[in-house]
Amino acid sequence: ASCVQHCLVVRDASSLQVRQIYTCLDQIQYLEWSSDSLFILCAMYKRGIVQVWSLEQPDWHCKIDEGSAGLVASCWSPDGRHILNTTEFHLRITVWSLCTKSVSYIKYPKSCQQGVVFTKDGRYMAVAERRDCKDFISIFVCSNWQLLRHFDTETQDLFGIEWAPNGCVLAAWDSCLEYKLLLYSLDGRLLSSYRAYEWPLGIKSVAWSPSSQFLAIGSFDEKVRILNHVTWRKVTEFEHPATIASKKTIVYKEVEKSPSVETERLFFPPTRALASSLFSTQSKYEISQVPVSLQYIKPVADRANPKMGVGMLAFSADNCFLATKNDNIPNAVWIWDIRKLKLLVVLEQLCPIQCLQWDPRQPRLALCTGTSRVFLWSPAGCMAVQVPGEGDFQIVSLSWHSSGDSMVLLSKDNFCVCYLEREEV
C-alpha cells in the first residue's frame, strides 16, 4: 500500500498491479496494515481522524474522529481488530474496537521514543506512563484490555521500553543523561539493573536478539555491550575504533568507477543508452588491506543531539550476526560474529548509512546510503546493485518482505520493489 496526498493505492506485491484505490478525507500522514492484512489504517493527524479500509469489502469503511482531543499517533493492536489512538499532549490512549464498537481509555501515557510495545505473541501490551513527576509502566492483557500490573520504575526520565521476543522480560531504559537499563518480569518484578558508567551521556540504542538470549546496548561512548539472559551481566563489549588493524577482519570498501567506452563507438549526437552510460558511474566493493583508517567525524560538543555513539543495532534472524553503526563513523557498518564474539566484517561506504535491515529469513543484510544503489552482504560476500530507471532515485529507506524474496526501496517521492531470486535447495 502507498499513499499520494489523500489517495490510498493498494497493489499486488508480486506484480505491482493496482488492486484498489481509496479516497480519504485529507492528506494521509501515516498508514499501517492490520496483522492479517485485511484492513488498512490511514491516519490524518492534522484533522484528528483515522479511516480504516477493508480489502475484502471495498464498500465498507470506518471513520474514527478524536475531535478536540486531537491525534498524534495511531497503531493497530496485534489482533488487527482494535486501534490505539494517542491524543495530543499524550493525555490518553483511546482503544477502539472494530468488532464491538466499544471504547477503552488508558490515561497518562508518556511522550517518549518507545512508549507502547506489544509482546511478539500479541497477548500483552506495556505502556510507559508519567504521573506525579514519576515514571510508571502498566501491563495490559490485549484480549480484554484489563490491567495486569502497574509499577513504578527507578528512572529519572524513562526513554523507552522493549519486550524480549519470548515475551518474558521487559527492558526499560533511561534518557541519555543517565546510563541505566532495567529488566522487569511479566509480573512487574525487577530482575536486574545495569549501569556501565555514571556521568557521560548514556544509552542511545537497544536491541534484543531473536532468541531472547542477548540484549545489545549501544551507547554514546561508541561501544556496544552485550548482556546475557541468565545473569543479566555483561558478556562482552564491542568497540568501534577509527582504525581497523586486525588481519582477521575483512574490510570491504565501496569504490566508484566510470564504465569504459570504446572510442570507436563515440559519435555525435550520442544515442540515449550511450549518453547514460558515459555519465553514469558504477559501484562495487574491493577488499582493503589492513590497517584501514575510516572517516571519523568529531561531534560538535555545544549542540543538542550530537552525532556520536552507536545509533543503529540489528541482529540477524538466525542470531549469528549483529550489525552496528557508530554515528562518529557514519559511512561504515560493522558486522560482528555473535558465536565467536568478534568483529567479522566492516563495510566502508562512500556516503553515510541511511538505513540497514536484515533479511527476515536468512543472514543477509541490506543497506542504503541515499544513492541510487542498494547494498547487500551475506557470509558469502557483498555486492552493490544499481536501481534501473531514469532520473535520480535516491534510496533513503528500505523494508524487506516477510518472505525475504523482495524488498521495497523508498526515495523522497517514489518507491520501487527489488525482487531477489531464491536459490534452489
Automatic annotation (TrEMBL):
This protein's name: WRP73 protein
Matches recorded under Pfam families: WD40 (PF00400)
Lineage top rank: taxon: Eukaryota
Ranges that cross the membrane: none
Record-level GO cellular component terms: microtubule organizing center; MWP complex
UniProt gene name: Wrap73
